[in-house]
C-alpha cells in the first residue's frame, strides 16, 4: 500500500461538536469565571430573542446555585416555548437554528451559543442539561434531559416526558458546570446582566446569586422594540464569491428578475442599468454566467448608486430608550444620544447608536466607562480588540470637554459611553462574540456618532458655565451686597444705601430710576433709564399719574384712564446707553406709583415693575 | 524731681501722639466706608483699588532710598464672588477696628482677629493669612500702620544685646534698662511697638543684625559686643516689623552703621533685602521700616572660596531662588549680580556656623575683624 493510501485511511470528518470540544475558548468558555457569564448570556439572549419574536415583554429569571463543586445555572423565561420535537436539537445540536439563513437583526446568529453551553456543561460536570418548555397554558409542559453526542453532533435524549408546570408558557433550562462566581467587576454575571438591562429596557431581569441575594433589573418601558424584518442582501459591498454562489443556486430564470428579487434596494430600472454596465443580456439565465461575466456584474454593482437598505431589517434601541436605560442604571447629570442612519458594510445593513452620560456619581479622575453592545448583547471581553474601542480612542476628546492626557486613547472624566451596533450580521472577530471587527464603514459610523454626542456634551458644558456665572452673580446680589450695604450703614450710622443701581450694573440689566426735586409747588421729576446689557433694549415705559403733567420731554403718549393718565414713552436704548425723561407736576397731594416697563423680561429690569 | 518731669513728659507726648493717631485712624476707616457707601448711591460698582503687591510693581524711591510700590493697581470689586466677599470682610473689619478697638481703646493680636471673625458668617476668614493680608490692605488704603488700629503681632522673641541704654513705656509703667547690664544672656526682647521705646544713651560703633540664634550666642559668649562696641540684634530668620523698625531707628536716630550677617544662601539675601531695601509684601511701610544704609556683611559667596568654608550643595529650589533674585529689581546692583552669579557657578551654600570648623574663636578673631575692616566699619 502506498503511503498516501495508508494516510488516507486516517482521514476522517471531524464533527463540529468534537471540534469545539477541543477549542472551547473560541466559544467563550476559556476561564472558570467566564464560563458562567457566557452560559448565562447565551441562555438570556435566546430568551430575549424568543420573547421579542412572539411579541411578549420578556421577564427572565436567572439563578446561580452552588452545588457541591459545581455551579448550577438556571434560566427561565416567559417566552413562547419550544415545541417538543425541536427541544433536543435546539439545545443539543451545534449549528442548528432559525436565524443563520435570514438577514435580520437578532442576538443569536449561528445556532451555537446555547448548545455550546450544554456541551461545556456535559464536559465539565458530566451531567445532562434539563429543559422544561411549555407552549400553551392548556398544554402540558415537556421535560427533557439532554446530552450531545459529540461524534455525530446529534442530541442524545436521556429522558423526555410531560409534566405539570405552573407557568402558562415559557422555557426553563438548567445546566451544571465548573465555574467561578465573581461579582465585583464588570466582567461578571451581575455586570453583564446590568449591561443587558440598559439596552433592553423592555425586559425585566431577575438574578438570584449563590448567596441568595436577589437583584432585579426593572423595566424602563412597557413597549417592545420594533420588530426587525428579514430582508434580502444589499448590493453594496457584496463579495464576488457570494455573488457567484447566489447566481449558481438561484431558481430565477432571467438575470433581470434575479437581480430584482435577490437583492434589496434594486428595482427594475437598477437591474436594467446593471445589465447594461456589465454588457449582459437581462433576459439571460443567471445560472449560465461564467466567472468572467460574474465579475463584470460585480464591477457594475460598484458603479451604480442604489438607495440605502430598508431600515426595517434593523431594530435600533432608539434615543429615548437609550436615555431611559442609562438613567435606570446610573445617576447622571446629563445624557446625550444619537441614532445614525442605516449604512452598509459588505452587503450587510447596520446602524450605530451612541449614548453619553455625564456627571452625577461617576468617577472624575478615571477613564470613562465604555459599554459596547452588538444587537442588544453586551460585549464584555476583549475591549481593546473592538472597533468600538478603536473609534473611541481616535476621537480627540479634549475638544469635547473630556480629558485625554496623551491626545488619544479612552478619555478620562465622569462619563459613561454606550455604543450599540445593530446589524443583520455583526462582524465579530471570533465566535465568542467579544469584539467587533474593524470594518472601515463601521468605524466611520461610530466615529460620526461619537462626535455627535460629544458636540452635545460640549454644548451642555458651556451652558453649565453660563449658568454657574449666573448663579455666582445671584450669590453676590442676594447674599453679599445686601450685607455690605447693611454693614456700611452700621459703621456710618446712615440709612442703608439702595443697591438697585449696582445690581443692575452687575446683572447687565436695564435700570430705571427717578430723581425728584421740589420747586415752587411743582415736582420736577427726572426719569433716568440706563441699559447695562450688551444688547439693544426696546420697550415702553409707563408713568401713571393722577393729574396731568407739564413740560413732558420728550413728548409722551397720554392715555386718559378713569382715575388718571397713563404717560408712556416708546424707547430703544443701545448697549451702555441711557435716556433721560422729565416732566413736572403739581406737588400737592401727589404720590408717585412704581414705574412700569412693558415688553421686556422681568429678570432683566431693575427699578420698575414689568408687564 | 527733674527726672519725674521728664518721665511725665515722655509719657504725655506718647499718649497725645497715640490719641491723635487713633482719631486719624478712625477718620480714615470711616472715609473708606464712606467711599463704598457713596459708590452704592452713585450706582458705581463698589470697589477699592490697591497697588499690586508683586515683584514687578516695586520701584526705587530716591526720596528715601527705599523700595516702594509702583503705579500698578489691582481692583477689588463686587463683580466677582471673591471680590465681593473680600469687600464684605473689609467692612466687617473696619467696623471691628472702629467700634471695638479705637472707641474702647482696646486691641487684638493678628491671631485674635482671625478668631473674632468666627461670628461673621459668610465674612469669616478662612485662615490667618487672609486676615493678615486684609490688615495690610487697610494700612495701604489709609496710609497708617496696624498699630494705629490697635492691632499687634504675636511676640516673636527677637532680641538686642549691646552697649545701649533705653526706656520702654510698658503697660505697667516705664522701664529703663541697659542692654548689656540689665538683661539676661538672651538680651533685651524687642516689644511689638518699638515706638514706645526711647533711646537714652549708647556707646556703639555698629549695629550687627544676625540671622541665627547660634551665631548671636557665639558672639555674646566671645564678648564681641564689648570688644567692638557692637549692638547685636538677633533677627530670628525673616525679621518681624518690630525688629526692622528698631534697626531703622538705631540707624536713623543714633547714626550707627548697620551690617547684616546671615547664612550664605539665597533665602538669607532676602532677609538682608527686607532690612536694607524693603519687603515686597510690605513695601507700603518701607519708609518706616527700611534701613537703606544697611550693608551685607556675609556670608558672601566669595567668602566660601576665600575662607574655604565647608558647604552644602544648592537644591533645585535654591537655584530657582537665585535665578529669581537676578530678576528682582532690589538685587539689580553690580555687587549682587557678581555674588549671585558666583554662587550659581559654585552650586554651593554655607551657613554662618561653618566658621566653627576653623575653631570657635575664628569668626570673632579673624573673619569679622577682616570683613569689618574691609567694609571700613573698624
Describe this structure in words.
The complex is a heterodimer of chains A (611) and B (378). Chain A is an alpha+beta fold and 611 residues long. In chain A, strand 1 (59-67) and strand 2 form a beta hairpin. Chain A has helices at 3-10, 16-22, 32-54, 87-92, 113-124, 189-199, 240-249, 255-262, 268-277, 291-303, 319-329, 387-394, 440-492, 500-507; strands at residues 59-67, 70-77, 129-134, 141-149, 154-163, 170-177, 204-208, 214-217, 334-339, 343-345, 348-358, 369-374, 377-379, 415-423, 510-519, 522-531, 537-545, 550-553, 557-561, 564-573, 578-586, 596-598, 605-606, 609-610. In chain A, the strands form 4 sheets. Chain A has an 8-stranded mixed beta sheet with strand order 5-4-3-6-2-1-7-8. Chain A is 31% helix and 26% strand. Chain B has 378 residues and is an alpha/beta fold. Chain B has 13 helices and 17 strands. In chain B, the strands form 6 sheets. In chain B, strands 10-7-13-12-14-15 form a 6-stranded mixed beta sheet, sandwiched between helices. In chain B, strand 2 (58-61) and strand 3 form a beta hairpin. In chain B, helix 1 packs antiparallel against helix 2 (81-102), helix 3 (110-116) packs across helix 4 (128-142) and helix 11 runs antiparallel to helix 12 (334-346). Chain B is globular and about 70 Å long. The two termini of chain B are 41 Å apart. The chains are: A alpha+beta (611), B alpha/beta (378). The A-B interface holds A 472, 475-476, 479-481, 483-485, 487-492, 494, 497-499, 501-502, 504-506, 511, 530 and B 29-30, 33-34, 36-37, 39-46, 78-81, 84-85, 87-88, 91-92, 94-95, 98-99, 122-123.
Amino acid at each position: 500500500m502506498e503511503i498516501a493510501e495508508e494516510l488516507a485511511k486516517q482521514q476522517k470528518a471531524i464533527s463540529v461538536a468534537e471540534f469545539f470540544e477541543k477549542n472551547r475558548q473560541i466559544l467563550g468558555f476559556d476561564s472558570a469565571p467566564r464560563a458562567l457569564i457566557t452560559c448565562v448570556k447565551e441562555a438570556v439572549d435566546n430568551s430575549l430573542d424568543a420573547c421579542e419574536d412572539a411579541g411578549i415583554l420578556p421577564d427572565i429569571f436567572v439563578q446561580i446555585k452552588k452545588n457541591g463543586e459545581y455551579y448550577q445555572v438556571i434560566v427561565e423565561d416567559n417566552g413562547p416555548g419550544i415545541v417538543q420535537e425541536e427541544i433536543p436539537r435546539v439545545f443539543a445540536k451545534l449549528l442548528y437554528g432559525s436565524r443563520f439563513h435570514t438577514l435580520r437583526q437578532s442576538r443569536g446568529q449561528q445556532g451555537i451559543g446555547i448548545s455550546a453551553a450544554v456541551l461545556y456543561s456535559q464536559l465539565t460536570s458530566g451531567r445532562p442539561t434539563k429543559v422544561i418548555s411549555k407552549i400553551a397554558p392548556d398544554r402540558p409542559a415537556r421535560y427533557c434531559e439532554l446530552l450531545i453526542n459529540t461524534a455525530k453532533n446529534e442530541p442524545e435524549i436521556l429522558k423526555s416526558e410531560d409534566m405539570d408546570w405552573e407557568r402558562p408558557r415559557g422555557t426553563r433550562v438548567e445546566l451544571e458546570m465548573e465555574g467561578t462566581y465573581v461579582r465585583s467587576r464588570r466582567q461578571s454575571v451581575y455586570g453583564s446582566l446590568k449591561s443587558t438591562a440598559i439596552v433592553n429596557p423592555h425586559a425585566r431581569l431577575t438574578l438570584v446569586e449563590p448567596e441568595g441575594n436577589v437583584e432585579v433589573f426593572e423595566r424602563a418601558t412597557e413597549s417592545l422594540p420594533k420588530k426587525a424584518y428579514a430582508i434580502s442582501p444589499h448590493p453594496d459591498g457584496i463579495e464576488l464569491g457570494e455573488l457567484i454562489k447566489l447566481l449558481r443556486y438561484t431558481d430565477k430564470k432571467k438575470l433581470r428578475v434575479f437581480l430584482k428579487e435577490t437583492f434589496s434596494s434594486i428595482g427594475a430600472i437598477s437591474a436594467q442599468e446593471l445589465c447594461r454596465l456589465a454588457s449582459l443580456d437581462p433576459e439571460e439565465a443567471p445560472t449560465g454566467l461564467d466567472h468572467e461575466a460574474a465579475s463584470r456584474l460585480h464591477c457594475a454593482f460598484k458603479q451604480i448608486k442604489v438607495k440605502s437598505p430598508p431600515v426595517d431589517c434593523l431594530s435600533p434601541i432608539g434615543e429615548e430608550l437609550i436615555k431611559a436605560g442609562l438613567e435606570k442604571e446610573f445617576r447622571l447629570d446629563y445624557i446625550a444620544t444619537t441614532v445614525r442612519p442605516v449604512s452598509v458594510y459588505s452587503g450587510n445593513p447596520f446602524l450605530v447608536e451612541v449614548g453619553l452620560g455625564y456627571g452625577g456619581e461617576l468617577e472624575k479622575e478615571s477613564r470613562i466607562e465604555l459599554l459596547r453592545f452588538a444587537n442588544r448583547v453586551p460585549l464584555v471581553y476583549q475591549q481593546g480588540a473592538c472597533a468600538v474601542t478603536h473609534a473611541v480612542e481616535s476621537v480627540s476628546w479634549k475638544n469635547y470637554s473630556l480629558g485625554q492626557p496623551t491626545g488619544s486613547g479612552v478619555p478620562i472624566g465622569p462619563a459613561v459611553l454606550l455604543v450599540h451596533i445593530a446589524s443583520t450580521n455583526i462582524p465579530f472577530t471570533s465566535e465568542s462574540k467579544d469584539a467587533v471587527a474593524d470594518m472601515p464603514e463601521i468605524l466611520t459610523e461610530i466615529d460620526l456618532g461619537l462626535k455627535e454626542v460629544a458636540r452635545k456634551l460640549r454644548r451642555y458644558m458651556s451652558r453649565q458655565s453660563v449658568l454657574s456665572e449666573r448663579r455666582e452673580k445671584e450669590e453676590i446680589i442676594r447674599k453679599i451686597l445686601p450685607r455690605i450695604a447693611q454693614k456700611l450703614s452700621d459703621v456710618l450710622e446712615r440709612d442703608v444705601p439702595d443697591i438697585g443701581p449696582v445690581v443692575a450694573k452687575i446683572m447687565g440689566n436695564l435700570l430705571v430710576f427717578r430723581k425728584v426735586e421740589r420747586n415752587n409747588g411743582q415736582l420736577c421729576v427726572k426719569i433716568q433709564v440706563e441699559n447695562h446689557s450688551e444688547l439693544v433694549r426696546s420697550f415702553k415705559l409707563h408713568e401713571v399719574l393722577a393729574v396731568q403733567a407739564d413740560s413732558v420731554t420728550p413728548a409722551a403718549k397720554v392715555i386718559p384712564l378713569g382715575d388718571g393718565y397713563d404717560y408712556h414713552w416708546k424707547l430703544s436704548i443701545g448697549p451702555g446707553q441711557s435716556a433721560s425723561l422729565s416732566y413736572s407736576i403739581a406737588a400737592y397731594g401727589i404720590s408717585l406709583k412704581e414705574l412700569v416697563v412693558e415688553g421686556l423680561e422681568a429678570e432683566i429690569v431693575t427699578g420698575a415693575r414689568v408687564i | 524731681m527733674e527726672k519725674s518731669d521728664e518721665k511725665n513728659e515722655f509719657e504725655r507726648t506718647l499718649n497725645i501722639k497715640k490719641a491723635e493717631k487713633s482719631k486719624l485712624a478712625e477718620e480714615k476707616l470711616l472715609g473708606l466706608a464712606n467711599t463704598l457707601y457713596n459708590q452704592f448711591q452713585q450706582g458705581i460698582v463698589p470697589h477699592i483699588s490697591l497697588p499690586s503687591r508683586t515683584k514687578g510693581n516695586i520701584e526705587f524711591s530716591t526720596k528715601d532710598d527705599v523700595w516702594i510700590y509702583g503705579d500698578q493697581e489691582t481692583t477689588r470689586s463686587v463683580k466677582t464672588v471673591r471680590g465681593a466677599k473680600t469687600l464684605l470682610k473689609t467692612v466687617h473689619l473696619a467696623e471691628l477696628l472702629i467700634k471695638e478697638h479705637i472707641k474702647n481703646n482696646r486691641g487684638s493680636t493678628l491671631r485674635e482677629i482671625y478668631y473674632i471673625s468666627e461670628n461673621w458668617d459668610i465674612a469669616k476668614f478662612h485662615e490667618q493669612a487672609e486676615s493678615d493680608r486684609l490688615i495690610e490692605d487697610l494700612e495701604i488704603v489709609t496710609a497708617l500702620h496696624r498699630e494705629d488700629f490697635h492691632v499687634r503681632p504675636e511676640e516673636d522673641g527677637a532680641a538686642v544685646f549691646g552697649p545701649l541704654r533705653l526706656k520702654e513705656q510698658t503697660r505697667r509703667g516705664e522701664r529703663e534698662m541697659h542692654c548689656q547690664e540689665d538683661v539676661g544672656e538672651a538680651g533685651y526682647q524687642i516689644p511689638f511697638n518699638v515706638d514706645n521705646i526711647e533711646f537714652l544713651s549708647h556707646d556703639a560703633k555698629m549695629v550687627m543684625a544676625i540671622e541665627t540664634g547660634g551665631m548671636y550666642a557665639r558672639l555674646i559668649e566671645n564678648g564681641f559686643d564689648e570688644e567692638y562696641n557692637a549692638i547685636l540684634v538677633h533677627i530670628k530668620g525673616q525679621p518681624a516689623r518690630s525688629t526692622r523698625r528698631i534697626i531703622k531707628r538705631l540707624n536713623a536716630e543714633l547714626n550707627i552703621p548697620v551690617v547684616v550677617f546671615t547664612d550664605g544662601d539665597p533665602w538669607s539675601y532676602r532677609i538682608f533685602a527686607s532690612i536694607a531695601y524693603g519687603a515686597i509684601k510690605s513695601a507700603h511701610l518701607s519708609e518706616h521700616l527700611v534701613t537703606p544704609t544697611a550693608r551685607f556683611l556675609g556670608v558672601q559667596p566669595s567668602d566660601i572660596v576665600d575662607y574655604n568654608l565647608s558647604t552644602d550643595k544648592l537644591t533645585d529650589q535654591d537655584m530657582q531662588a537665585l535665578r529669581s533674585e537676578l530678576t528682582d529689581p532690589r538685587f539689580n546692583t553690580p555687587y549682587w549680580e557678581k555674588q549671585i552669579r558666583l554662587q550659581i557657578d559654585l552650586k554651593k551654600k554655607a551657613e554662618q556656623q561653618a566658621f566653627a570648623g576653623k575653631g570657635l574663636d575664628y569668626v570673632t578673631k579673624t573673619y569679622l575683624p577682616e570683613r569689618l575692616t574691609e567694609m571700613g566699619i573698624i
